[in-house]
Design brief:
Radius of gyration: 19 Å
Number of strands: 11
Shape: globular
Number of helices: 12
Structural class: alpha/beta
Distance between the termini: 22 Å
Largest sheet: 6 strands, mixed
């Protein structure tokens, strides 16, 4: 069975047990570590059997894939950030400062960019159309680009929440805080999907195995340390630990009614008519 997920600490933490043969009765898997922008595009091309994608990419994926109720990233206080340079003389910045400016984003298919567009419609003069240019850059290049003045602002995710001050950057907006303030709902970030052609029984078994891998991770948090750090490469171990603590939570174990409601709230009328998200 083929599976693709990112090399980020939350994903390697969650899938460590399955990928290392620690779940009894679980099918062996061929793992591809891929940035979520890659999987967001891959899922539209047929993709692999199981994949981690952005919730923003879910509506297009639902014809061929079904949403699993576990293993993904959804929560509070974990949203994307809009970062800028040091600001003006008095240190104040606002959304209106982005009018006519260049903003770097990691993907046009990401949940982060979906939230950014909605935020910009309220906060930026002229809305999204008022921004001078949206420039897609690899995630790791965004903060250096803002720091070096190559772009005016950057939309960042994941461990950037913990590391952006070291680049001398300011947080213009926390889109998670904004979303929660507007909706009261947690923010859906990354979804785990399985190919519908696998069949109902196989998908149910995959869901069981993913949940078992999550449970193993919770029960043995140190077991995945080497795997997590190997994939995270230069990430500081304490940052990786904070990353996991932020993005792996009870919604990772099971979306539940609150999680599914948040997904519907985020995606709204982009979901196909009659969509049933829950596994039968």
């Amino acid at each position: 069975m083929s599976i693709a997920y990112s090399p980020c600490p939350n994903d390697t933490f969650v899938f460590h047990a399955w990928s290392h043969g620690l779940i009894k009765g679980a099918p062996p898997i061929d793992v591809t570590h891929a940035d979520i922008d890659v999987t967001n595009n891959l899922v539209r091309q047929g993709g692999l059997d199981v994949m981690k994608i952005s919730y923003a990419a879910l509506p297009e994926a639902l014809a061929e894939y079904t949403l699993l109720p576990c293993g993904g990233a959804l929560g509070r206080g974990c949203g994307p950030l809009v970062l800028t340079g040091p600001g003006n003389a008095d240190g104040e910045t606002s959304g209106t400062d982005l009018a006519g400016k260049i903003v770097a984003v990691p993907s046009l298919k990401s949940t982060a960019y979906l939230l950014f567009r909605r935020w910009a419609q309220e906060q930026v003069t002229g809305g999204v159309d008022g921004i001078g240019e949206i420039r897609v850059l690899p995630f790791h290049e965004i903060m250096p680009a803002v720091r070096d003045g190559l772009v005016d602002a950057g939309l960042v995710i994941h461990e950037a929440r913990f590391t952006y001050p070291s680049f001398g950057l300011r947080c213009l907006a926390d889109l998670g805080d904004w979303w929660e303030g507007v909706t009261g709902a947690p923010i859906p970030l990354g979804a785990i999907v399985a190919r519908r052609a696998l069949g109902h029984e196989r998908i149910a078994e995959i869901s069981r195995v993913v949940r078992a891998s999550v449970e193993y991770a919770f029960a043995h948090p140190e077991a995945s340390r080497d795997y997590v750090m190997q994939q995270a490469q230069e990430l500081d171990p304490e940052v990786a630990k904070a990353h996991i603590a932020l993005y792996v939570n009870e919604f990772t174990r099971d979306l539940g009614p609150e999680g599914y409601a948040a997904v519907r709230r985020l995606l709204g009328d982009t979901l196909p008519d009659g969509t049933v998200l829950e596994l039968a």
